[in-house]
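User: Structure please.
Assistant: Input sequence and predicted structure:
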Amino acid sequence: MEKPFNNRAWFLVLPVFVLVAFSAILPLMTVVNYSVQDTFGNNQFFWAGTDWYVQLLASERFHQALGRQLMFSAIVLLIQIPLGVLIALCMPRQGWAVSLSLVLMALPLLIPWNVVGTIWQVFGRGDIGLLGYTLNALGFNYNYVNNVGDAWMTIIVMDVWHWTSLVALLAYAGLRSIPEAYYQAARIDGASRWSVFRLIQLPKMKHVLIIAVLLRFMDSFMIYTEPFVLTGGGPGNSTTFLSIDLVKLALGQFDLGPAAAMSIVYFLVILLLSWVFYTVMTQDEMGKKEGTA
């Protein structure tokens, strides 16, 4: 007996296709269209082919912005992932303190990005900011407006303060999902605290940590509002990341063709690095599946 086939079921997913087309595909195709053309206004476009891509990939300005972006993402990941796991390990497991700690950890995530930048802009000022005034009083000569090292340190500390909570909450969820029987077996075997973490907690948290690493990498690689509000990309171009440079190119210089080409390359870099992260972190599981197949 043949099963009935009803094409009307496609109408159920049609709204999803329309939504994706308007929110993702059409804007992306528009950017691709701009990236292969040049315009001098009056809605007149001239075919440029791959000129903007060739020019961009040979640009020292793009290389420097990409290098700063990669360095920033690497630093915040190296700090936030271990620190978030450590905080999750120290969070309470039962009682009223659980709800309190969860609320406190979620608070930084609720603050809008431009407000975070404004908070740290005032916080780091040497004349009225608590951080800047205290460091200068201790003799550190701190000034994030003129000193490159101070500007980088302030942006990194700001991002760690803002987003480590996300890693901690994800790691905490992973820890809470571990059955109590594992800990009971470890106590019977006399396992040390380090052995419990290395052999039980860390492997069980692996999936949530993969999500945490991917989320934090993508977000840190696309960061714009907080450093722009805090330093505006300065001093000089020392904190001009790819996102800030892209906005300067598109809206400051109104070079739509090069900005569109940069947007496409920027998107492909994020996509490629995310794929590399995911492949490396899930390599063990893929090997096990191939071994059992």
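The radius of gyration is 24 Å.
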